[in-house]
Amino acid sequence: MQQVGAAALSAPKTGVRWKVFLMMLFLIALNYIDRASLSVAMPLIAKEFDLSPAMQGLLLSSFFWTYAMMQIPGGMLADKYKPRIVIAAATVLWGLSQTLAAFCGSATTLLLARLGLGATEAPIMPAGGKLNANWMTKNERGRGATLLDGGAPLGAALGAIIITWLITSLNSWRLAFIVAGVATIIAGFYAYRFIRNTPREHPSVNEAEASYVEAAHAAEHSNEPANLSGRTMDFIKYRSVWCMALGWLCFNTVFYGLLTWMPNYLNKVHGFDIKQMGGATFCIFFSGFVGELVGGWISDKWKDAGGSANVVMRTLFSIAAIIATASIFSVAYVKDPLTVVILLSSTLFFLRWCGLYWCVPSILGTRNKVGVLGGIMNLGGNIGGISVPIIVGLIVQTTGSYFLALMFFAAAGVGLLLCSNGIDYEKKLPV
Predict the structure, then answer these.
(1) Disulfide check for 373: which of 249, 361, 382, 411 has CB 3.0–4.6 Å away?
(2) Do 233-430 and 13-220 fall under one CATH topology?
(3) What CATH number does domain 233-430 carry, 3.10.590.10, 3.40.50.300, 3.50.50.60, 1.20.1250.20?
(4) What is the dihedral of CA 353, 427, 75, 197, to 10 degrees?
(5) Which residues of 2-12 are buried (b: 16+ CB within 10 A; e: fewer)?
(6) pTM
(7) Helix 83-101 / helix 16-49 crossing angle, nearest 10 deg
């Protein structure tokens, strides 16, 4: 028996943990394809329903009302019921909400459908953060986090192409929404079949991989604070938690601002038609996807080479915030459409390094609080999702220009820089 056990441990590790996170990349990409579909279709919907810019901003914002509200409950569900069931159920339910949006006959009913989409999409990111803590070792979580969060720019990039193609091929934004929703429902059932809560539970994980992850977790857990309060509200006592939530808010101010308003900006300011918008949006957000994977790879390799967590994370976040802010600031002064697309691509490439924020819940949180800490972070972030579409809509309607909106995004980039440097990435909180 000992020989069999030794042979199992000496066998090459399976790499199922990476396949699980490729699955999460796919699900988050679908998540963003569905949520971004309204932005892509907005010129057509605005014409059909005769919507003002302020009303368009309200519709684009409505998703985030329930999405933000359900972040902490979603994290609690992931901690209590484990991430597998939460991820699968959320995917099926938001696919259903996306499908129902196709049958809306007014701005009011479309707003209700978007509220449903927000509530059902909300749990997947906190549950994904919990999955990262369960499946990845300390020096793999950068790549795990950026694979998880990389679905955002990938979904935004593919969403622009896929939804645009569906709308033009089917000659209907409603049929495009139905196809996207049904595809998501199917993906949710497959996710339940493939994902497991821990490596030990997965039938394709061998003993070597399970033991490798468990040994890394045992070493990490041995460094947890001895006296834990167990009270979630105690998180508000710590500067790192506030900086985490506010930093993610600043990040999302820029990202969601571009996600919701960039197609309209390219159309109104630079004269892009729907096909040109699709191509430009793909280039811009795919740059963000590539940048996110680059950031995760640098982070893990640097830590493997002996870099301290504070040095690695603060340096990478500072580079990301400074270059993204300079790029988005420059967009306001550039008239050439190609240069605008290049600058926006630069913005997204470096901004998405901040997908590394999804390491922070597992860095700061103890094993039973990672999900809820991810929910707290994403609640802060999605306050930006709620406010930004409305703020930009009011700015554009009041000034007739996107200049102040771009300055608003640049200011958020400065906030991201300051908050990211206020987090202690080497200290678990005794909660």
Answers:
(1) 361
(2) yes
(3) 1.20.1250.20
(4) 90
(5) eeeeeeeeeee
(6) 0.79
(7) 20
C-alpha to C-alpha distance for 73 and 53, rounded to whole angstroms: 32
CB within 8 A of 260, min separation 6: which ones?
Answer: 39, 60, 61, 388, 389, 392
Amino acid in the structure at residue 304: D
Class of domain 13-220: mainly alpha
Q: Minimal CA–CA distance to 133: which of 147, 118, 144?
A: 144
Going from the C-alpha of 292 to that of each of 18, 154, 317, the distances in angstroms are 16, 10, 12
> Which tens digit of pLDDT belongs to each residue from 176-193?
999 999 999 999 999 999
- Number of residues assigned to the chain: 431
3-state secondary structure of 65: helix
Tens-place pLDDT, residues 378-431: 888 888 878 888 888 889 889 988 999 999 999 999 999 999 999 999 888 888
The label of the residue with tokens 């300390």 reads 138
Structure tokens at 377: 């972070």
Phi, psi of 430 (to 5 degrees): -80, 60
Residues 6+ apart with CB under 8 A from 429: 225, 234, 235, 238, 240, 241, 364, 365, 366
| CA geometry: angle 183, 185, 187, nearest 5 deg | 70
Per-domain residue ranges of the chain: 13-220, 233-430
